[in-house]
Amino acid sequence: MDSITGFGHNRSRLDRLLTPEQRARLQGITTVVCYPARDCVIYAEKQPADAIYLLNRGIVELSSVSRQGEKQIISFLHAGDLFGLFERNCYCSTTTTLTPVEVYRLPLEPLKELLVADARIQLEFLTKVADDLRRSHRQILVLGQHNVQQRLAVFLTGFIQSDQFYDPQAQVITLPLRRSDIANYLAVTQESIVRSLKQLEAAGVLERQSPKVIRIADMGALLRLASG
Amino acid sequence: MDSITGFGHNRSRLDRLLTPEQRARLQGITTVVCYPARDCVIYAEKQPADAIYLLNRGIVELSSVSRQGEKQIISFLHAGDLFGLFERNCYCSTTTTLTPVEVYRLPLEPLKELLVADARIQLEFLTKVADDLRRSHRQILVLGQHNVQQRLAVFLTGFIQSDQFYDPQAQVITLPLRRSDIANYLAVTQESIVRSLKQLEAAGVLERQSPKVIRIADMGALLRLASG
DNA sequence: CGGAGCATTGAATTGCATCAAGGCACGTGG
DNA sequence: CCACGTGCCTTGATGCAATTCAATGCTCCG
Questions:
Q1: What are the pLDDT digits (tens) for A37-91?
Q2: Taking the C1' atom of C20, which residue's CA lies nearest?
């Protein structure tokens, strides 16, 4: 809930959010779709939009590619997250799986009817979209105000509430991403990520146990960096 | 609708969005609040949240201040826009008037009841929040991928659909903002804005008729810059 | 069959030269 | 007076190329 990256909080699955009856109504229009591996494209930017998706299992990356071919990762999505934002009937971004994924596909027209018919279900959707908006605003602050070290600190602190990627005992984060993914998310180069990691290690803030395994040595310093 | 800054599109006023009956229901919980000048704070970051606002007249700036004291303008709001995003019952950002403003104040609890009671009204809200999310995603792309010139071009193109600030005949934009506001929005310094304006003028893309009055000399070039 | 050693490949890291943007001080103009 | 504009210097981040590292699969041998 507090996380910007999305890696922090373990969001509720669909089946905890609604009453059994509401779930049944939603399931009436739902198709379950599975993607077995990483790098599967669920939908691509500018493709005609015919459905909204609700993520049930796995991690999805929301991204857009600029004309120069640079990829910007807009956010990472987890179980319980909605995606499928479109404009003039075409999707605004590309969604790619980072892990095996299971999604609920909600075709637009029936969904709209359902939302109008059941205001409670709609309120769940409204809440989710508002949460996304809050996260996007935070990302704007990070990209606008923070230097590379601070961005990295924000990114890392996004993990400390995660069961899946953070071991509170050992204070160890296991990154599910490559350096280049982190770079594309924080809008810096991969080299800058590496250099900042090195600086933070030299400053005693963290310790790289292997490229993807990072021990937080000084949580206070990390949090201070992350908050600007 | 296509604008990122918000200065482009003349959004619908509340009174065009709903049926008379729905408008009446909304008015039942609404207080009209007026701010007579610029620089009035409607609410401040971290203040307890008790209402959502709907802008009826004027321009509002949504911003947040980082710990180092740097202001980041997140977006500009116009008639028809919703604001008042909060988390744990406290507002996430500060809203300040840029012009005289009239807002509809919608207290949270009655609003929530109304949204649950009337799914059509709620759908208007959902649509607005989704639009905001789309704009935020675009701003993330701009901050992440564009250099100063490109950001400025994006900003300027945001005006070309506006009745209020763009004269299509003369191809002239009248900026309602200071250099420092543009800088805080685009996450660069005021000096960089000035230098980029100069470069664009030297390149024949635009012409500064006065600091706030800018003639677009080569719209194609501007649009090309803006799209990366 | 299982495990040690080796090859292969993509990822991570480093050094160095370069540059876009920032910071500051000062001048200008409405 | 406040906002805008300019010149000069500094610097954080980048781009590129080279090097190291790590994970995976493969072979071969006990």
A1: 889 999 999 999 999 999 999 999 999 999 888 999 999 999 999 999 999 999 9
A2: B147
The answer to whether B123 contacts A141, with C-beta atoms less than 8 Å apart, is no
Identity of the residue numbered B17:
L
Provide the pLDDT for residue A157. Answer: 97
Closest Cβ opposite residue B136 in set A122, A136, A187: A136
Pairing of strands A213-216, A172-174: antiparallel
Residue B149 touches partner A, C-beta closer than 8 Å: no
- Which residues, in sequence order, are bridge partners of residue B27? none
pTM: 0.95
Q: In this predicted model, which residue has the larger pLDDT, A38 or B203?
A: B203
Closest alpha carbon to A101 in A59, A61, A63, A42: A59
Q: How far is A115 from chain B (nearest CA, A)?
A: 7
The dihedral through the CA atoms of A63, A64, A65, A70 has a sign that is: negative
Average pLDDT of chain B, as a whole number: 93
Instruction: List, as own/partner pairs, every contact residues B166-173 make where C-beta atoms lie below 8 angstroms and the sequence separation is at least 24, other chains included.
Output: B170/B215, B171/B215, B171/B216, B171/B217, B171/B219, B172/B209, B172/B213, B172/B214, B172/B215, B172/B216, B173/B213, B173/B214, B173/B215, B173/B216
CB of B178 lies under 7 Å from some atom of strand D? yes
pLDDT tens-digit readout, B5-63: 778 755 655 566 677 888 888 899 999 999 999 999 999 999 999 999 999 999 999 99
Residue B184: its pLDDT value, please? 98
B47, A110 in Cβ contact below 8 A? no
Angle, CA of B66, B68 and B72, to the nearest 5°: 35
Q: Phi/psi of residue B92, each to 5°? A: -90, -15
Nearest to A143 among B68, B85, B140 (CB): B140
